[in-house]
Design brief:
The chain has helices at residues 6-26, 35-38, 46-62, 65-88, 102-119, 121-125, 127-149, 152-166, 172-191, 221-235, 237-254, and strands at residues 93-94, 195-196, 200-201, 205-209. By secondary structure, the chain is mainly alpha-helical.
Length: 255
């Protein structure tokens, strides 16, 4: 059920390290926008802005045409979503109560890296096995947060993630991987106090107690994915129609 041959497991881990592992390491630059470094250097947010812009441009240059378009869409939607959830709704708050420039760019980088990992041939070969491992790990993680930190809000969002994926089997690998990436991102970001979450959902619903950060926040990345998908189909209608035609042909051959 969970078994993956050793040689193929090494290949999967290599792909993960190259496309996502380095992303985890880059999250350490949150330190330069954290309360610790800002106490030393007042304009601490300049460093992460420059570093993320460089990382975005490098990744953009190395990506294929479709991934480049998705990255641009992710920046646009990331900016709108961050402004709505952070500034308007107060779902979480950044250190300076603003929207840092590097955050929307970071959404695009995270989206692109996770997308590339989920599309790798060796990863798709063992998609079912990897999904089972991710599901198992996420269940343990969310239960731990619920029991130890009384993170009801995060647990509810985790359940919502699973419910949404019931009817989206092709998206499970991408979104469960995204769940893990976002969880690491949130833990590091809040540890450096770059942003913080209120004790309850949106600071409004007392019944939904929340940890800082809540475990299942990747639920909101569904909006990012849906938004990127909609924008891609709208601005690349010919490519999308051709793709749907090819998919229909393949289905007809298998019937």
């Amino acid at each position: 059920m969970f078994l993956i041959p050793t040689n193929d497991l090494k290949k999967i881990l290599t792909v993960f390290t190259r496309r996502i592992g380095l992303l985890f390491f880059s999250f350490l630059f949150f330190y330069f926008d954290g309360t610790g470094f800002s106490a030393i250097y007042e304009n601490a947010q300049i460093g992460p802005n420059i570093l993320m812009l460089v990382a975005f441009l490098v990744l953009y240059k190395r990506s294929v045409k479709r991934t480049r378009k998705l990255m641009i869409y992710a920046v646009i939607i990331g900016f709108i979503g961050e402004y709505l959830f952070s500034i308007v709704l107060g779902m979480y708050t950044y250190r300076l109560s603003n929207l840092p420039f590097y955050i929307p760019l970071g959404h695009a980088v995270v989206y692109a890296r996770t997308y590339c990992f989920s599309k790798a041939s060796i990863v798709n070969k063992y998609q079912k096995e990897i999904v089972r491992w991710l599901f198992f790990g996420i269940v343990i993680f969310s239960l731990f947060y619920l029991i130890v930190f009384n993170d009801i809000f995060g647990f509810v969002m985790t359940i919502a993630v699973f419910l949404v994926l019931i009817n989206r089997p092709k998206d499970r690998l991408f979104f469960l991987t995204m769940y893990v990436v976002v969880a690491v991102l949130e833990i590091i970001g809040t540890a450096y106090e770059v942003w913080s979450w209120p004790d309850t959902a949106f600071g409004v619903f007392p019944i939904l107690k929340s940890h800082n950060p809540p475990s299942g926040i990747s639920l909101f990345y569904f909006l990012l994915d849906i938004g990127c998908f909609v924008m891609y189909t709208q601005f690349n209608s010919k490519t999308w129609k051709r793709f749907k035609y090819i998919r229909r042909q393949l289905k007809s051959k298998t019937i």
